[in-house]
Design brief:
The chain has about 375 residues and is of the alpha/beta class. It is built from 12 helices and 12 strands. Helix 6 (about 200-205) links the parallel strand 7 and strand 8 (about 210-215). Helix 2 (about 60-80) packs antiparallel against helix 10 (about 275-310) and helix 4 packs antiparallel against helix 10 (about 275-310). The protein starts with a helix and ends with a helix. Residues about 1-45 have low confidence and may be disordered.
Length: about 375
């Protein structure tokens, strides 16, 4: 009797434990950055997709204010409760130059990538930094967004395990410094100028300046301690980097280059998400390109008035000097293209495509 009871008890306990483990296994969703939320009448649970987005911009920067944050809000709105965004700004998940790896390795699902920061991995995508191509943020952003999706995805994004969601450009960069007005090539000589690497660095070397590689968030501290005396920057970026506290002079009509902005998504994460989630992200990404570009132009006009009132001398380069400066910078485009062609890359093709798209959207 006792032996039979023990045997029955053992069978009962084994069955009880098995049922409990099965229940636990069905109550949690693992992998893919998703979590279970709610329950339908049919017994199936609605899955909320949790997406990590990372960038390098401080909270005071206008790119998050006019671009990233409205984009995130729109994604969640279109997701109708199915998408939850976890946002990690200010290099919380990696320095600006390492965010491509953060996206590629799944540290973040989506990350900001500035191609000029990763010119060794995405040299063609740095074309927005070439001089004289971008006229304004709206046409430049539309052109760059088209370029990265239609021409550069297969060449540079896909090999890095990511796909571009959207791209934009700043207005053309100006020469900003605390030493003197710069109106012609010879005025660059001797200045310690912060660059974003790549072609900007080559341009400053050729013009006689000393290029210094400094991440965006460190511009103010580097300038304050004398490591740099100026930078190539659009007005749009001044607030985020406290540029107005150290700058004394800025051109207004130069076209030294622009800065390309991309947000990319990990390919595996993208493919793991349902189509309605992909559609929400795609729609929000398509909408934000022109929205942010128009905000850039408006904000820059307001900022220019503010900085002039604060004592910064903002000036136009005389037309004759500007034409001469642009002529001196044009060979950098040809050299950029030929150097990449020599490496078996499509430098000339991408340069001409970007010119073509800019002209298309400037009309």
């Amino acid at each position: 009797m006792r032996k039979g009871f023990k045997k029955w008890l053992l069978v009962f306990l084994t069955a009880f434990v098995a049922v409990g483990m099965a229940a636990c296994g069905n109550s949690e969703k693992t992998g893919g950055g998703s979590s279970a939320k709610g329950e339908n009448k049919g017994g199936k649970k609605d899955e909320q997709i949790v997406i990590k987005i990372a960038d390098s911009f401080p909270s005071s920067h206008l790119i998050p204010k006019t671009g990233t944050l409205p984009w995130i809000d729109r994604i969640e709105e279109l997701g109708k409760g199915k998408i939850k965004i976890e946002y990690y700004p200010a290099e919380q998940l990696g320095k600006a130059a390492s965010l491509l790896d953060a996206a590629k390795n799944g540290v973040a699902d989506i990350a900001y990538v500035g191609p000029l920061y990763v010119s060794d991995k995405m040299p063609l995508s740095g074309v927005a930094g070439n001089p004289g191509l971008v006229k304004d943020a709206v046409s430049g952003s539309k052109a760059f967004n088209k370029l990265i999706k239609d021409d550069l995805y297969e060449l540079e994004f896909k090999p890095n395990g990511v796909r571009p969601l959207w791209g934009a450009t700043t207005n053309p960069y100006q020469i900003v410094n605390s030493v003197r007005k710069v109106t012609k090539a010879s005025d660059f000589k001797g200045l310690k100028i912060r660059t974003s690497g790549g072609l900007q660095e080559e341009m400053m070397q050729k013009l006689g300046a000393t290029p210094v590689s400094v991440p965006g968030p460190e511009i103010f501290s580097a300038w304050d301690r004398g490591t740099i005396e100026g930078t190539l920057l659009s007005f749009f970026s001044w607030p985020g980097y406290q540029t107005d506290k150290v700058a004394k002079y800025s051109s207004r009509n130069a076209q030294l280059s622009a800065f390309g902005i991309t947000y990319v998504v990990n390919e595996k994460s993208w493919k793991s998400w349902p189509k309605d989630v992909q559609d929400a992200i795609t729609q929000a990404s398509d909408e934000i390109v022109e929205q942010m570009a128009k905000a850039i132009i408006k904000d820059e006009a307001d900022l220019e008035k503010q900085y002039k009132g604060a004592g910064v001398e903002i000036y136009d380069i005389p037309e004759a000097d500007l034409e001469k400066l642009n002529a001196e910078l044009e060979p950098f485009n040809k050299k950029w293209a030929k150097d990449l062609d020599a490496k078996g890359l499509q430098g000339t093709k991408i340069l001409e495509k970007f010119r073509e798209y800019n002209k298309e959207y400037q009309q």
